[in-house]
Design brief:
The chain has 455 residues and is an alpha/beta fold. The protein is built from 16 helices and 15 strands. The strands form three sheets. A seven-stranded parallel β-sheet has the order 3-2-1-4-5-8-9.
Amino acid sequence: MSSEGVNILAVPFPVQGRLNPMVQFCTHLATKGVKVTLLLTQTATKSLQIPTATASLIAVELIPDVLPDRAADTPPQNTETTIAQLRATFSQGLPHVIEKLKRNAESPKVVLYDSVLPWILGLAKGFGLQGAALFTQPCCVCAVFYHIFNGDVEIPSEKSAVLSLPGMPLMGTNDLPFFGYLNDDSKYVQSLLANQFLNIDQVDWIFFNSFDKLEEKILKWMRSKWAVKTIGPLIPSVNLKDSKEEDHRISFFKPHSQACMDWLSMRDSNSVIYVSFGSLASLTQEQMAEIATALAEINHHFLWVVRESEETKLPKDFKSKTSEKGLIVKWCPQLLVLSHGATACFMTHCGWNSALEALMLGVPMIAVPQCADQHMNAKYVVDVWETGVRPKANQKGIVTKEEIKACIREVMEEEKGKRLKRNTVKWKGLAEEAVLEGGSSHTTIQNFISRVSSI
């Protein structure tokens, strides 16, 4: 059935790690002939870098923020206030956009929304539209949030150091989602993520940014409760065989693309450690010093992404002292870096997008999780998918230079590194299989378009 006349309104959560999977799904739908309108707040787009190719595929509707921007000299809002502002903004803006699309004979059939905005479903149903929730974290992590929502699990747990949950390996305290870094916000953020399941029984479509063979056991358990569908990995497939897709990711940071590619092109094959802790993670000055010292002392080249807000934490003269062996940039084109032949391993915070990209591009990981879902992602990277190693943190929560250097040697120089590489190549093949024609994720997306076409 033709996708002509199928209109979808997409409502993302405006932080980079959750925005890009939504945009990737939307651009994929748009290449199949679906008309997609992305709803963004005016504040969110102020520093957003939107590629021309993306703008040509997806219509963007900007809605005004209900509450004014905070002044530059006021302290940051807490998460609860931010979510309240976002809810007020979307609650006013979404109906106006739906009415506008109706007047232009482009009435949407489905509202696709980030799963941490479950109240969007009620707005969609109020207009007689279907609701599709996109879970941008892995199935295993979201299952833990369901158990929290259901009252079966407490984090941090005071009952047991080891947790046994259906469809999952045994979890230690250090493997579970962690929110302590948020201080007073921790309980609210945990509740926000647990409430993704608030009205899940009323959702018409439940999509996960994962793929069937990656999370078979937990998916079997989840599908005994809900009609869960995997559509990932939701990352640009520009590096896959037979792919003509462009990189549609949008960013709040401008990458130093040419500098990174030129520098990598001068390095030997499998000789570079790529280090990045994503768009949000903030490391302590002590932790930055341990990483910097390890990179200075090992006998390998490194490419390290240090955001502008983190640069003051670098040891004095570190850049000048390591200029012969390392490159430090404020942001980089991560997919291109991971797919470059010079890149041997990825030291990462294990945010889900980064972990998926490494899996899809066959790059072993050194997992240094910081917060939220990253500890569970690291657990799966190391113990389930066996594509990485994880240095142990000390009693202060700091990963020392000795631990980091030992892990680098394991991945770059020892037999274990070869085994990890073989495993990454296996998962790379299974990820490709899922997203290419006839694969599980590809078929799910095709079926979604076909079903929506018949509404």
